[in-house]
Amino acid sequence: MAERPRKKAKKSENSTPSSESSAKVEDVPRETNPLRYLNSEYLSAENAKKIADNFKKEAPFPHASLSGFLDDAFLDKVKQELLKKEEWYIKNNDLYTFTQTDDLKNTKQPHVRILHDIIYSKEFRNFMSTVTGIELNDTIDSFGSRYWQGSQLLCHDDELEGRRIAFIFYLVPKDWNDKDGGRLELFNVDKAGQPDEVVKSIVPKWNNFLFFEVSPVSFHQVAEVFTEDKERVAISGWFHGAPIKRPPRFVEPNLPRALIKEGDKFNASQWVNSRYLSAQIQKKVMNQFQNTSSIALTDFLTKAKYQEVEKAFKAKDTAWKMIGPANRRHYLSLARGGDKAALQKLPAPVRDLMLFLRSPAFGEVLCKLTGLDYVDEVQSEIRKFEPGCYTLAQDNTEQQKDEGLDAILYFCDNAKDDDWDDNLGGTTNYMSEDAELATLTPAKNSLCLLFRAGGDRVMRFVKYLRAGAPSLIDIASVYYDTTSPPSAPGDDDDEDEGMDVDEEGEEDDEEEYEEDTRIPKI
Hints:
Layout: H1 45-57, E1 63-66, H2 72-85, E2 89-92, E3 96-100, H3 110-120, H4 122-132, E4 140-147, E5 152-156, E6 163-170, E7 184-189, E8 195-202, E9 209-213, E10 220-222, E11 232-240, E12 258-259, H5 279-292, E13 294-297, H6 303-314, E14 321-323, E15 329-334, H7 340-343, H8 348-357, H9 360-370, E16 377-385, E17 390-391, H10 397-400, E18 404-412, E19 428-431, E20 436-440, E21 447-452, E22 459-462, E23 472-480
Antiparallel strand pairs: 1-9, 2-3, 3-4, 3-5, 4-11, 5-10, 6-9, 6-11, 7-8, 7-10, 12-16, 13-21, 14-15, 15-16, 15-17, 16-23, 18-21, 18-23, 19-20, 19-22
Helix pairs in contact: 1-4, 2-3, 6-8
């Protein structure tokens, strides 16, 4: 079985310290003719023209895959050195989970160095320019990557810092097949230039060299690896050239907000567990919330109301709709936008709950539980996450710029918070640029509350839900007070700005998650 890293640390446990680690790069023996390991047939003028013609015709954007590109025995040695002697670092955030080496220009391994010299040679760069028709400079990036069971790289376009051609040398086992996962999936785009659907899937194959043009429409992803006894190993990177002009940044319209004062009249006791309507419990919750800016309230709805809504969610005729674009989100939604006309089409128990969550009665309950003075607007959405679903940090970014109280009500099959395996994904994570701030773990009939400062300092995403994970449904709401200046709950001096990071609590590396950031529950 392929061993997945057990700690989210910078250095992989599979890296092997050796005496070679003290060697200098310039001391590594150099091959006088590294190009001899290339399949010479591809370098002929006739074949190069065929490759170029096919490259331009491929959809949804120019790409090519060349089999048997390198000498097999040589590539075997490259893989052995890569896995056993290079250091590996875990890469884990909203977009991806995999391990990676440093740039291979720093490698001290002889066969990896030869492959590096091939990639960086003037002859190979000229070959790449010829078959793609793209003028390249001498800036090249290259690194090793490893994907184990559950690893993935979600939808993105690769555009950054003059990247013009992305490339992959596949070093997967020779028996790798479609059932193992890890496909390279290519998206077409809609009228707004955003990723629409996966229209081509490429199964990794040993000793295939794949490359594609990087552009504003080169949206692609590495699908989840399913196999438990193999790793998707590759050497990847980019050839650089003059940057191309990008189209104007795509800006989504904001989801509409509802005015709480215009909400219907409800009796909170018919919906909310009586313990949370007790003045004593409300004071306890408020004190804890004001200390941490977040809290999880278990068994929040009355048992009867929870069961009614859950049954409606699971009904076969409930009209879930997949929501994108994939470079922002991928999940199922009900009545996205939440205007009253859309809500009327929902099953009655779900409609009534949504109306209650935007009512003055519920707004009053929230204020008593959190210590907020007032909430007057709310934006809510019903979301269903099945394996393969997620949101990225740029999901609803305009909405997140405003200070607000995030309230997520969970419907899922696990009985207790501890039963949900965070390694399967589905958690809602909050991050600054350099640290993870909080993690909301799904739990049956749990309401998670978190006060979030405005601006670009806090990013929020739902971690990719892996194969084999149970599906979950949530109602994700944001409550706003548009009448008051920004301030954290319970703070009269404006020193605490909600989810800002304490300088002493910042992590040096955003990819290290050693601290338990799950929010307290009550």
